[in-house]
Structure formats: C-alpha cells, structure tokens
Amino acid sequence: MSQPLTDRPASTVAPVLAPSIFLLIVIAAIGPVALNICMPSMPGMQTAFNTDYATVQLTLTVYLVAMAVSQLVLGPLSDRFGRKPVLICGLVCFIAGSLFATFAPTIELLILARLVQGLGGAAGIAIGRAIVRDCFSRERSASMIAYVTMGMVVGPMVAPYIGGRLDEAYGWHATFLAVATVAVPVLLTVVVILRETHVHEGNRAVFAPLVNGASVLLRSPAFWGYALTLGFASAAFFAFLAAAPLIAVDFMGMSPSEYGKYFPLGALGYMAGNFMSGKFSERAGPDRMIGLGNALGIAATLAMVIAASTGTLHPLALFVPMAFTAFSNGLVLPNAIASCVSVRPDLAGAASGISGAIQLGMGALATVITGHVQDGTLLPLAIVMAVSILISVATAHMARIHMQRLHTR
C-alpha cells in the first residue's frame, strides 16, 4: 500500500509515493542477514582453509567495518544522485561480493569478498532510513522506522538457523550463495518498482556537496546528540553480544543449546519495543519515547548490576534484564534515527549514513571494552551496559535542547 508524501523537504521536487513497508524491511535486512547467516559455518571455514579461528573471525570484523565506512559514503551520495541509483549500485556490489565469497579459494580472498559484500550490504540500511524520512514527517518517520526495524530483527534472528542447516547439507559455500540468490529478486524489484523519493536540484558538482553536507551535520549539536544517543544505547546491546556467551557457558554452566533457548528473549524484547514505537511515536513524539526508553534501560541495567553484586548465577539474572534493555532499545533507536535524519531533512542520506557509522563504531568499541574488562562474571558486563545507558540519557537531553532551539529559529 502506497502512501502520499506528507512532509517533503525543500530539496526535493515532484510528488512521490512511499514504498511499501515490506520492501523497506527486505532492503534494510539484507545486510544484517548476511552478517549472521555465516556464523554457524565458521568452524567449517577454519577446517576448509586450514587456518586459525581468529583469522576466520576477520570475515565478521571486516564485514562490520565495511558496513560502517560504506554508510558514510552511500548516504551522502544518495543525497546527490538520488536514493534509487545508489541503492541499485549497493545491491549489485553486495551480490558480486556474495558470489565472490561463494567461490573464494583462500581465506584471504574470502575476507576480501566479505569486504566487498559489506560495502554493498550497508546500502539498504543507510538508504532505507533516508527513504523513510523523504516520505514522512519526523514523528511519522519514527513510527515507520520502528516497524521497519521490527521486521528487520526477524531476518538476523533466524539467519543463523538457516545458515546452519545449509552448512550441514551443502557446506559453507551455500550460505553465501543463498544470500546472493535472495538479493537478485530484491535488486530486480528495486529496479522495476521502487520510485525515486529524493530529487536534488543543484549543480553538477559531486564531492563538494558531499563534504559540505557532512560538515553541516557534524557542526550540529542536535545531530551529534541524537547520533550519540543512538550509539551509546546500541553499545549496551553490543556489549551483551560480546560477553554473554562466555558468561552463560563458562560462568553459569549453561550448555550452548540452553544459551540458544534464552537468547531470543532479547530479540523479542527489541521487537516489542519497536512495536510500541510504531504505535505511539507519532502521538507522543520522538523525545518522549527516547526518554521513556532510557528510563527503562537504566532500571534494567541497574537490576543486572544488583543481581551481579549479590552473586546470582541463574540465567534469568542475565537474560531478563537484557530483554528489558532490548525493549528500551526498541523505543530509543527508531526515534533517535528519525531525529538524526530530521535535523536537516535535505541531508537525510548523509545523516543516515553518518549516524549508522557512529552506531556501528560505538558498538564495536563496546565489544572491545567489554572484552578487556571481562573476568568471566556478570558484573563487568552489567557495569558497561549501565554506563552506556546513562551516557545515552545525557546525550539525549543535550539533543532535545538543541533540537528545540532549531525549531524556534
């Protein structure tokens, strides 16, 4: 179902129709699915390439870094050339990288293929958010981003299971071939059905507008406030991903299968938060939703700190606070993203790319910090998560003040 544009920025022309929510979900989910689907195949890759596990892990690290860097470029490029052509180029790059990975004869070439795949996989995330802002007001875009994110969670959540089954049946190559096969009809759908939502009227220069657009955003305290809110709120979740397997298996004595049973609690909490954002963000406004989410996040992480301080070893001490933290992320993240791309709607692509890179960068930093302070117990993780949420509260307050100043000018 298409919906008329409601709040067009001045830099766009000609009325457009918003793409279907399902297409936006699929476009945005491609990159995260490709990140997760190959995880069960990593031991098989280690054996196949006769290498160590740390080298195989580079296939994940390089992919994440490529996605972060790519968003910095693809978002501004979409402001200059339009969303559709840049998205098409990104999907072509993603498919090429996936096929390259499928037939990579060495681990070095596989890592290179993942670099190419990640550069293209970021297009759906960065440009999908910008498309939403092209088509809706700040309040409405927060709701739409929440629904898109809620749908996105399903793909990465089931991707490891699908990847494991493919690996058992056909080997590790099948996971990369599968994502390439899925991406082809997505590319064709974008080419045939997706309408351009952003038409920039300006000169033919390329690099100057990109640099100028980025510099405008990076000089904006409101943008920095919302981007850092997004980054620190996400950091709590990434810290959990880095430390939870070690804590659950080695410290709490859970088996890998038991860990797998509890892990979906976080995804379900995040989806529930996204659903609430979708229902109420337009009515309550992004700043109130961010405040509510951060308040819940503080309560959840402090509960984890208390449980850790008392020496509680039950899995629920780890996973229940995490589920509520994920729920708080479901409230904070869509509204922070919508606010980032609303500081300057005419630079929504650049804002989406830069904020996405900050989000992934803060997440990567959180995993490094958690790895250095982790002692096998729950307490270091709980403290890192609580501090991340507390900083998110401070940056959200800063962002709200500066956004109000922008509106009063």
Detailed description of the structure:
- By secondary structure, the protein is mostly helical.
- It folds into two domains: 200 residues, Up-down Bundle (Growth Hormone, Chain: A); 194 residues, Up-down Bundle (Growth Hormone, Chain: A).
- 81% of the residues lie in helices and 1% in strands.
- The chain contains 15 helices and two strands.
- A two-stranded antiparallel sheet has the order 1-2.
- α3 runs antiparallel to α14, α4 packs antiparallel against α5 and α9 packs parallel to α14.
- It starts with a strand and ends with a helix.
- The N terminus is likely disordered.
Task: Summarize the helices and strands and which ones pair or pack.
Elements (H helix, E strand, L loop, with lengths): L2 E2 L12 E2 L2 H17 L4 H8 L3 H29 L1 H20 L4 H29 L2 H33 L2 H20 L14 H12 L2 H31 L4 H7 L1 H21 L1 H24 L6 H25 L7 H26 L5 H30 L1
Antiparallel strand pairs: 1-2
Helix pairs in contact: 1-5, 1-6, 1-7, 2-3, 3-4, 3-5, 3-8, 3-14, 4-5, 4-7, 5-6, 5-14, 6-11, 6-13, 9-13, 9-14, 9-15, 11-12, 11-13, 12-13, 12-15
